[in-house]
Design goal:
Structural class: mainly alpha
Number of helices: 14
Low-confidence stretches: none
Radius of gyration: 27 Å
Number of strands: 0
Distance between the termini: 48 Å
Mean pLDDT: 79
Shape: elongated
Order of helices and strands: HHHHHHHHHHHHHH
Length: 360
C-alpha cells in the first residue's frame, strides 16, 4: 500500500511539474488580456478576453493555433446570430433556446469541431442573457475574443513549457510499455504460462491511449518550438522524436499481434521454443536504450546496434506455425524500431536475416 501511494505521489508531482508552465501561461495571460481589453480597447467588462486565453492555452495538450481560430470564429458566429435575433425578438427562455439552436446549427454546418460548436452556442447564450444589461456590442466581444487569443499565443511563446520535456515524457511512457509487454511475453514463453501471456495481451491492448497522447504531445511540442524563440534551437533535437512517432506506433501494434499469437501458441501441442524468449528480451532492452538515448539528446546509435544484432541473428530450428508468426512479428518490430532510430525502411529491412537462410 505504501509503495502504491508513493508511486501515485511521484506520478502526480511529475504531472504537476509538467503542467506548471501551462498554469502560469493561463494565469498571467488571463490578467494581461483583461488589462489590454480595458486599457487599450476601452471595454468595461471584457469577459471574453481572459476566457479566450484559457481556451487557447488550456492545461492540456492540443493544437493551440487551431483552437484560437475556432474560438474567434465560433464566438463571432454566436455573437452575430445572437445580436441579430435578440434585437428582433428580445430576451427570455424561449428566445435563448431559439438563439442557441440556430447558432449551433449554423456552426455544425460550417465546422463540426466540438470547440467551434460549443463556442458558438455559449456565445449566443451570453449575448441573449447579458446584452440587455451590459450595453456592449457584438463587435466588442469579437475583439475581446481575438485579444485573448493573441495574448494566449504570446504567453505560449514567452512563457513556454519545454517542448523537449513534453515529447520525452510521453514517448518514454510508450517505449516503457513496449519494453514491458515484450518482457512479459518472453517470461510467458519460458514458463509456458498462459495466464501471464493473457496479462501481457491485456496490458498491450491498453497502450493505444499512450500512443495517441504521445502524438498530441508531439504536436504541442512542435507548436511551442515554432512559436517560441527560446526553443528554436531545439528543433533538431525534437526532430528525432518526430522521426520515431510513426515507427513506435507501428511497433506497438505489431507487439499486440505478437502477444496475441504467443497466447494462442502456448495452448497448442507444440508451443514456441524457449529460444524465442531471448530475442524478445533483446528487443525489449533495445526499446529502453532508444528511450534513454533520445532522452539524453543523442542519436540512438547504441539502440540501433542492439537492434541490428537481433536482425542479424539466425532463427531457431524446428519452428511450428505459431512460432513462425511470432518471429515474423518480432522482425517487424525490429524494423519499426530501427526506423525510429533514424534508419530508412529499405536499410532496416535489408538488415534482417533472409528467411531463406537455413535455420540452425
Amino acid at each position: 500500500m505504501r509503495t502504491w501511494f508513493s508511486d501515485q505521489v511521484r506520478e502526480r508531482l511529475g504531472t504537476f511539474g509538467l503542467m506548471m508552465p501551462s498554469i502560469a501561461q493561463c494565469a498571467v495571460g488571463a490578467a494581461v488580456a483583461w488589462i489590454v481589453a480595458i486599457e487599450l480597447l476601452g471595454h468595461p467588462r471584457p469577459f471574453f478576453a481572459p476566457i479566450s486565453v484559457l481556451i487557447c492555452v488550456g492545461v492540456g495538450l492540443g493544437q493551440r493555433l487551431r483552437r484560437v481560430a475556432e474560438l474567434v470564429v465560433g464566438v463571432s458566429l454566436g455573437v452575430g446570430v445572437g445580436d441579430l435575433l435578440v434585437s428582433w425578438i428580445g430576451s427570455g427562455p424561449w428566445q435563448i433556446a431559439l438563439v442557441v439552436a440556430l447558432a449551433m446549427c449554423a456552426a455544425v454546418l460550417l465546422n463540426s469541431g466540438a470547440l467551434f460548436v460549443a463556442q458558438a452556442g455559449s456565445s449566443a447564450v451570453l449575448v441573449a442573457t447579458l446584452v440587455p444589461g451590459e450595453g456592449s456590442g457584438g463587435l466588442d466581444r469579437m475583439a475581446d475574443a481575438l485579444t485573448g487569443g493573441v495574448v494566449g499565443i504570446a504567453a505560449v511563446a514567452l512563457l513556454p513549457a519545454s517542448p523537449f520535456t513534453i515529447a520525452a515524457k510521453h514517448l518514454s511512457g510508450v517505449l516503457d510499455a513496449l519494453s514491458t509487454v515484450l518482457e512479459q511475453a518472453a517470461d510467458a514463453i519460458e514458463r509456458r504460462d498462459v495466464d501471464l501471456a493473457a496479462e501481457a495481451l491485456e496490458e498491450a491492448r491498453g497502450t493505444q491511449g499512450a500512443v495517441e497522447e504521445y502524438e498530441r504531445a508531439l504536436e504541442t511540442s512542435k507548436e511551442i518550438a515554432l512559436l517560441s524563440p527560446l526553443h528554436w534551437h531545439r528543433r533538431a533535437r525534437l526532430a528525432r522524436y518526430e522521426t520515431a512517432a510513426v515507427p513506435v506506433d507501428l511497433a506497438m501494434r505489431n507487439a499486440r499481434v505478437l502477444i496475441r499469437r504467443t497466447l494462442a501458441a502456448l495452448g497448442e501441442a507444440s508451443p514456441p521454443p524457449k529460444e524465442l524468449a531471448e530475442s524478445l528480451r533483446e528487443v525489449s532492452e533495445a526499446a529502453l536504450l532508444l528511450q534513454l538515448e533520445l532522452g539524453a539528446g543523442r542519436e540512438p546509435l547504441l539502440a540501433r546496434q542492439a537492434l541490428l544484432a537481433v536482425a542479424a541473428s539466425e532463427r531457431p530450428r524446428r519452428l511450428g506455425f505459431s512460432a513462425h508468426v511470432i518471429i515474423a512479428q518480432l522482425r517487424s518490430i525490429v524494423v519499426d524500431l530501427l526506423e525510429a532510430t533514424g534508419m530508412d525502411h529499405e536499410s532496416a529491412t535489408a538488415a534482417l536475416t533472409s528467411l531463406d537462410t537455413p535455420a540452425t
